[in-house]
Structure to design on (103 residues):
């Protein structure tokens, strides 16, 4: 009789091990390479591989967009608003100059 071996189930990501061979009433044998039970040798799937350059560029774009939004709030005024502020400023300067004393 052959010793049999423990193999991975139908898909590589399956965590289910099945006994192949004549070991139906015995515990699964050790993993042939690592010499450990198959449940210990199973590694879950790895994380997705990402391109760090792409992530860095996306982060820079997001930071630029937030800075642009802040600048739109601070400096984004219509031409009419700019002209009105300029007129108010000149009027205030005239009033201040009119109250100055000349020695």
């Amino acid at each position: 009789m052959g010793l049999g071996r423990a193999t991975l189930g139908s898909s590589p990501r399956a965590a289910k091990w099945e006994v192949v061979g004549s070991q139906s009433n015995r515990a699964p044998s050790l993993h042939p390479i690592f010499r450990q039970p198959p449940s210990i040798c199973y590694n879950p799937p790895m994380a997705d591989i990402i391109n760090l350059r792409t992530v860095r560029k996306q982060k820079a774009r997001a930071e630029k967009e937030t800075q642009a939004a802040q600048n739109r709030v601070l400096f984004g005024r219509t031409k009419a608003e700019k002209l009105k502020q300029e007129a108010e400023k000149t009027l205030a300067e005239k009033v201040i100059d009119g109250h100055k004393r000349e020695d």
